[in-house]
Amino acid sequence: MTTKSLTILGGLAIVLIGVALLLSQPDTSGQSKAGQYLFPGLMEKINEVSELSVKTQAETITIARTGESWIVKEKHDYPANMEKLREAVVGLGELKILEAKTKKPELYDKLGLEDVEAEGSFSTGLTLKDAAGAIMAEAIVGKQEPSKGSLGQDEVYVRKPGDPQTWLAIGKFSVEKVPSEWLDKDFLEVEPKRVRQVTIKHQDNTKLVLKKERPDDQDFTVVNLPKGKEVQSQFAVNNIVATVTSLGLEDVKPASEVSFDEKAVVTALFQTFDGLEGNVKLFRKDEKDYVKVSAVFNADLIWKPKPEEESQSEKPENEENAKASEIEKREAEKPKPPKIKPEGDVKTEIETINKKVADWVYVIPKFRADTILKKPEDLIKKS
């Protein structure tokens, strides 16, 4: 390396060190605020928040309160994920100042704190409003990383719009920048242990039937497995049931905006031991997997133990059956079968499901759709 090169590199190092010092050196005028809330008094009024807006260069996301619920305006007013809302709103209210940072606008980009509208900006703007539309808190959020000194908390650079002062703050704080990530994603959740049968019917009339005989059975069997064949993986069989009954969305659209071609639809019917019958329709179009869901009550599905099973379960332990105590102990250690829900509870559950899903078509992840689309031959052990 030449002397000239060393001189150039040395000069560059000095410049970089200078920038680092400017960023790292606290503004002593703000040192007295260390340990204080970034937004004093916000937590006392946190229940008055009625709107959160998240603004990036790409888009604005608005999560708003409607009565007792919260919705994502940019996603057709679909229900919001309350946990993520709490993490953002309460997280902002609980942010505490660690130290003051630069006031120089030319250094904001080093912290990710330039104005959201500035060219090439990666900052995020957050605004909390009350029911009257008055701003309760407003912040520009920049770079963030886990705190080295406080487990479970993050250190984040922030500043308030119109105020040149930047801050390094700490707290349990998280904010999503993609509209679909604010959605309440779990739109169908039925415990797989409650299920007695799943029947998947394909466009070519091929069927896959998975079944359990008793609620305390741990695994499902493939009823229509080709003669002389066995399954490759019991996990794969059980996973189909778990997927059909516990769906999560990637996106959502009003039912009026998506037309299903019934000739291209795959249906998955699942039935529980306590009378719930759910119907999932899957339609693959334009590299997206759309589903519609509905549920009804079917009293014929309710499982009733045989008389001898009831009498055995009620038989008291005495000296004659003492020898069986060890067996009973081992049985007691097995996973408990699902409790058969009362008819009234199941009907209420069905009403809740239908109310939630009636007006919507859901886009589900491809890996979930691929699981539902499996046929008997896909589960056979290869010879």
From TrEMBL:
Domain DUF4340 stretches: 70-253
Region of interest (Disordered), ranges: 307-348
Pfam hit, one: DUF4340
Protein name as catalogued: DUF4340 domain-containing protein
Originating species: Candidatus Nitronereus thalassa
